[in-house]
Amino acid sequence: METVLSIVAVVTGICFVVWLAVAILRFVDRLTVGKPLTSEERERQHREFEARLTCPQWDQLTSHFGCDIPQSLRKLYADIDCLRREPFYVIPPDADDESEHHFVARFEPADLATVRLACLPSGRTSFPFASDDFGNYYYVDLAEQGLSVNYVDHDGGDVSRVADQLDTFLSWKTYSDARRPT
């Protein structure tokens, strides 16, 4: 009987310690991260993002970068259906397997807020037009003639060339998670 009581006491003690640890971690999360968003707050944030996405601030960007915004970028932001597209993969024509496909979670609004939030390599004319799920950006250098598309991994700062021109990147076949190339 004494052994059973000892086992129950040990198990109860372990459960209490685990419960206490979880409670402390949740409390710390509340203090550091804040409370979870309500559905109304998420909806408001979505509406604000949509408004920014569909209303490019070309004058702001022209003033900030000190150069004209290329027509191919203006054309992209004029295609609202393309901007609102669900996450997708871009297939370069020379890709041998899926590991060489590029994931685009969303297009980014054409405004200064996007430019300021993006972790891009130094360069005054880098404009982030899309991102993946991990905070990495696809960007173009507005000072370049062809608007080559580059991808920057914010963890290591690695930059890789994706396409020689924005129009080329946007013309490549794509697919969603349903695996249907378009």
Automatic annotation (TrEMBL):
<dbReference type="InterPro" id="IPR037883">
    <property type="entry name" value="Knr4/Smi1-like_sf"/>
</dbReference>
<protein>
    <recommendedName>
        <fullName>Knr4/Smi1-like domain-containing protein</fullName>
    </recommendedName>
</protein>
<keyword id="KW-0472">Membrane</keyword>
<dbReference type="InterPro" id="IPR018958">
    <property type="entry name" value="Knr4/Smi1-like_dom"/>
</dbReference>
<feature type="domain" description="Knr4/Smi1-like">
    <location>
        <begin position="57"/>
        <end position="171"/>
    </location>
</feature>
<keyword id="KW-0812">Transmembrane</keyword>
<dbReference type="Pfam" id="PF09346">
    <property type="entry name" value="SMI1_KNR4"/>
</dbReference>
<feature type="transmembrane region" description="Helical">
    <location>
        <begin position="6"/>
        <end position="28"/>
    </location>
</feature>
<keyword id="KW-1133">Transmembrane helix</keyword>
